[in-house]
Structures are given as structure tokens and as C-alpha cells.
Amino acid sequence: MWTYDKFLQFPVNIKNANPKMAKIIITQYGGPDGELGASLRYLSQRFSMITPQAIATCTDIGTEELAHLEMVGAMVRQLMKNASLEEIEKGGMAGYYVDHGRGVYPVSSSGVPFDATCLASKGNPIVDLTENLAAEQKARATYEYLINMADDPDVIEPLKFLREREVVHYQRFGEALRIVQEYVQEPHLYTIR
Amino acid sequence: MEQNENRKKTAQCKAMSKCIPHETAIGNVRLAMAYVPYQKLCTLFTPIEGLKRGTVFPELYSPYEGEDKKSSPYELSKKGRNL
Amino acid sequence: MKNKSELLKQIVAFEFMKDDLALYLNTHPMDKEALAKYNYYVTETKGLKECYEMNYGMLSEHDSLSPYPWQWINDPWPWENDANFNLEKEGK
Hints:
- The structure holds three protein chains of three kinds.
- Chain A has one domain: Ferritin, core subunit, four-helix bundle (Ferritin, Up-down Bundle).
- Helices cover 63% and strands 0% of the residues of chain A.
- Chain A has eight helices and no strands.
- Chain A has helices at residues 19-25, 27-30, 35-45, 52-80, 85-90, 94-100, 125-149, 153-185.
- Chain B has three helices and no strands.
- In chain B, 35% of the residues lie in helices and 0% in strands.
- Chain C is mainly alpha-helical.
- At the A-C interface, α4 and α8 of A face α1 of C.
């Protein structure tokens, strides 16, 4: 089960409203390669994962992704909360505003609501860990695209942090895959059900 | 006493500079399998430095500075900047 | 004694150190050095958190005592600007 710590994993303190930025950053909240998808993916896969190392990795990284979801939500909120209606309109967020005000809702940057089809949990450890490697690369690339589009240092620093975490997660899932592959190769009766 | 301390520190420094933070050979490889090298612990950033960078392991730190907003990809590739 | 912001900054940094070490330990459970470092940071963070909670408020509903009235509901929440300290850009 989960406990909640009353602080963000990395500080988010954005002083300037920017709905245009919120519109693209929100994709890491509810989009195809975002943190909600990541946490559900890993927290679902762990039920059928094998080897204690891989199960712990899926559990702990899945939990960390929830903390990242919180950071992205904080960024969107801070970018929207003091935005004028004119800024919201100019930033292309009028459609979002009429459905969600200056609140936070899981959508992609093109307005598609969160959909679990962006993640896979195949029940097969090697398939699932390979999916996770791809997912971490996609998330890293998305953060790079977001960093490319940003110019406020208050926005860039948390994005850089989140991007680096994806690099680390890739390494951990890679190691978990090695462990699972070695386990499966061992000469003992083993079947994946 | 001080000489011993200095010797210890030098030995540590030498050990650290020889520390390779990952395995250098992967044995028993098979086709149609993916292999990410295992990391090995060498040094750590301080907590604040680690937090700023997004990892406490120097060997996993991969800085990204962003792409120039005004240049086209063609211009960037001429300058030697690729993916 | 450190002020609220400085203390929180240390706690967040130490928690992060623990998080990253824990992920490493999940795939390297036999690494004695990493394990020793993890346990060191667990002890240090406990002390920092105790100090923070005694003076500035609850950080979790897990093991924290609350003064009267119930403190958990107090502002600011982590996504509010006021709750976030200043971390200089990396490299500085």
C-alpha cells in the first residue's frame, strides 16, 4: 500500500503563468508517454513479474512515477492558476478551459483523455520489461521535446530532472531484464504461465 | 600516523580512479536477447548535487541542454549537431 | 538551527539519495557498500524529519505526531509555490 509524503520529489516553483506551456506539458500527465501511464504500467505488470529484483523494480519505479505525476500536475497548475483569460485563449487552452477551468485533468497535449491503451501488461516478464525499456525512452524523448520548447528556467529545471530519471529507470529495467533472462536460462524446470 | 593516513588516501584515490562503473564484458550472450550492462558503484554525488542533476550516480548523469529554437534541423546538422 | 526552507531542502535531497540508492539495491542486492550508504541516509533523514516536524509541521500521516488542532490539513500543499524551496541551477 502507499503512504504520502507532503513534499514534491523535486521543487516546482513557477512564477510566470504560461498556458501555452501548460498545453504541452500536460501530455506528461495524461498523454501516451506520460507519468500516469508509466505508473499504471509498472504497478500492473508487477503482479505477474518474476524474480524478486524485477518485482521490486516494477513496484518502486511505479511508485516513483506517481511522484512524477504529482510534479507534472503541479507544473500545469502553477502555469495556469494566474493566467488571464486572454493568455489562456492565446495559449490555445480555451477548449481545455471550458471543460476544466484552470484545473488539472489527464489529457494529452492534443486533448485526448487518458487511455490505458497507451500501456501494455502482457503477463510475460520478458515482454513487459522490454515494453518498459521502450516506455522510458519515449518519456525521455518527450521531456527533451518539452525542454526544447521551454525558455523559463523555473520550467526547464524540473523537466531536466524528470528527463534524467527516465535515463536511470531505463538502466534499472535493463538490469531487471538481465536478471530475468538469466533466471529463465537456468537449467531447471521452468514455465511461464 | 599522518603518513599512514596519507598512504590510505592515496590508495583510495588510485582505487577510485581505476573504478569502472559498469561491467566490461558480458558473457553467455544469446541471439534475440537484449543486454544492458550492469552498473557498478564507484562514487556518489552529494545529496544536493544529486538532486540538482536527477541522479546520485555520476556515470548515469546525461545532461541535456535543449535544441536551438531558431535553427532548422538542416542548419543544426551542418554545425555537427545530430539527434 | 536551520530555517524551514533549508531543512526541507536537506530532507528532500536526502530522500532522493535514498530513492536512487534503493533502486540500485533492487538490482544489486549483494552490494554491501551501497547498502551501508542507504542505511546511513535512512538514519540521517529520520533525524532531519524529526527536527522538521517538531518545529514546522507534519510531513506524512505515517508516524508523525500532530499538535492540536489536526495539523495535516494545513497549507501549503506541495504543489503550491510557497511549499517549494529555491534550488539553484545544477552545476552551481
